[in-house]
Design a protein that fits this description.
By secondary structure, the chain is α/β, with parallel strands linked by helices. It contains nine helices and nine strands. Bound molecules: S-adenosyl-L-homocysteine.
């Protein structure tokens, strides 16, 4: 398998991204042969670790490019009161709403929620955590990270923290677009507030359900420089290697990063 000849843009997501198939492919804790989903588990462990850093708390959190998933909010929701989730694609926002409203047929996140509760010290708190998260997500809105104001025409008050997982590398066709997208989403956070990011490194595509999606090939320094260029100081940055065990992707590592927005515009 190889990367698509033309970078798959947001409209391609709107047309071709199957939320249910994506969840089935990437968000079970183990595959049909019982092999553990190490990619997901590593990311859950990183998120748990990042959200236990000093100062990662506040009133509002914005999740940029949430997709149909909630795993990225499971540790986060313990430290913020209100969450706003943003994504370009209608079907992803609808799939997320389905889980938030506890509708029949929503994806079963319980194994993942239990795993995170175990990481946090008490597996039995899973139902409580689900309820907490369902209550805290106040809005699910459309966004485009390539726009100066990603939620245009809506203007959101700047948040205490923004999180973005596996979105910008999928949304940005080149490094210049990536750098400006980091600036665009960076403006959604208050000075002194935090940016939490999980991105894949050295990936050019991922595939599921017979569809192939492009990915911007990133190195650690490119991500760090983009974040610093957007007016943030990096507080935590960790690369974990990942051995692709299937043909779904050529991803080689994930990068987890926490940065703090500088007080004034001393970029
Ligand atoms: N955060 C989720 C989803 C990642 S998949 C996870 O961790 O699994 C990539 C997501 O980026 C998709 O939901 C897609 O709709 C979204 N996306 C693609 N282009 C975008 C753009 N220009 N603006 C906002 N979101 C975009």
């Amino acid at each position: 398998m190889a990367a698509p000849a033309v970078f798959t843009d947001a409209e391609f997501y709107q047309q071709s991204f199957d939320s249910r198939e994506y969840l089935k492919e990437f968000y079970n804790l183990s595959d049909s042969q019982g092999r553990p989903n190490t990619f997901l588990m590593q990311n859950l462990r990183s998120l748990c670790k990042m959200f236990s850093l000093d100062g990662l708390k506040g009133n509002t959190l914005i999740d940029v490019g949430c997709g149909p998933t909630i795993y990225q909010l499971l540790s986060a929701c313990e430290h913020f009161q209100e969450i706003i989730a943003l994504d370009y694609t209608d079907q992803n926002r609808q799939e997320l709403e389905k889980w938030l409203k506890n509708e029949p047929g929503a994806f079963d996140w319980r194994p993942v929620v239990k795993y995170v509760c175990e990481l946090e010290g008490d597996r039995e708190k899973w139902a409580e955590k689900e309820e907490k998260l369902r209550k805290k997500v106040k809005q699910v809105l459309k966004c485009d990270v390539t726009k100066a104001n990603p939620t245009d025409p809506v203007s959101l008050p700047p948040a205490d923290c923004i999180i973005s997982t596996l979105c910008l590398e999928a949304a940005c066709k080149d490094l210049a677009t990536f750098r400006s997208a980091v600036r665009n989403i960076g403006a959604l956070v208050k000075p002194g507030g935090h940016l939490v990011m999980v991105t894949v490194l050295r990936e050019t595509y991922y595939a599921f359900n017979k569809q192939v999606f492009s990915c911007l090939h990133l190195e650690r320094n490119m991500v760090e420089e983009a974040v610093e260029g957007a007016g943030f100081d990096v507080r935590f940055c960790e690369v974990q290697s990942y051995l692709p065990d299937n043909v779904c992707t050529d991803c080689e590592a994930t990068l987890s990063l926490v940065a703090r927005r500088r007080a004034s515009n001393t970029e």
